[in-house]
Methyltransferase domain-containing protein (Myxacorys almedinensis A), 278 residues
Amino acid sequence: MTSTLSQQIQEFYDASSGLWEQIWGEHMHHGYYGADGQQKKDRRQAQIDLIEELLTWATLSHASDILDVGCGIGGSSLYLAHKFSATATGITLSPVQANRAIERAKAAGIAAHFQVADALNMPFADHSFDLVWSLESGEHMPGKAKFLQECYRVLKPGGTFIMATWCHRATSQTPLTSDEKTHLEDIYRVYCLPYVISLPEYEQIAQNAGFQKLRTADWSTAVAPFWDKVIDSAFSWDAIVGLLGSGWTTIQAALSLGLMQRGYQRGLVKFGLLVGHK
C-alpha cells in the first residue's frame, strides 16, 4: 500500500476501534438480516449470523490453519478458530487492533496470533493456510489484483478463499454516472478507501490470479439494514460521549453514516461475496 493510504487506514482504526468495540462488540462487519433483509434480530447476533451464513454459502465445514486478512480486533479470527478448533492468524494495519486482538485471544485461551502487516505484501510463506478469510477488507486495498494474488499465494493447494467486500454496482450495461462517482468519492474519503470495483470485476481478477471453482453472490439486500442499526446506535449517550473523545476522523465517519445507507438504497453500493479454491 502507499504509505499515505496505509497511514490513513491505521489512524482511522487506531482511533475508532475502541469505541466500536464498546458500542457494538468484537465484530467489525455487517450483519445478516435474512435473504430479504426483513429478519428482526439483535445486532450482534446478526453479525455472527453473517459469519455462519458465509460458511454455509461457501460449503466450508473444516479448517485447520486460518488467515484473517484485515482482522480488526480478532472477531472473525477467534470465532473461526473456536468453531473449527483451528489455529488462526490475523493481520491488520492498526497496532491498536492487533494488540487488542492479542489480549482477547489470551483471555479466551484460543490459539490465535495477530500482527501488523500489509495485505499486499504478506510476511508468510507460500502455501501456509487452508482458509484465507477476508471480511470487508478488500475495499481498503489500492491494488485489488495484487491483493488476490497474495491471498492465492499463501493459500495451500486445495484450500479455500472466502471474501466479502464492498463493491459498486455492475457497469457492463450502464456506466457509473457523475453523481454516482461523486457519491462513491465521498464514501472513499470518509472511510479511507482508494476505490471499489464491481463484483464481476473481482471475479475476473480472481480467475486471473488462478482461483478455481469460483462462485459469487450479491448479499446487498440481506445486509443493508445494518446501516440503519448503526445510525440508531450513534445517537446513544455512550456513543456520543465516546465520539467526542475519539477524534475528528471518527466523528466524521459517524456523521457520514447516511452515505452508506443511501448507497444501498439507490443500488449503488453492493455487498459482494466470492469463494474460490486453489
About this structure: The chain has a mean pLDDT of 92. The CA atoms of residues 199 and 272 lie 6 Å apart. The domain at 3-242+257-277 is CATH 3.40.50.150 (Rossmann fold). The first helix runs from residue 3 to 24.
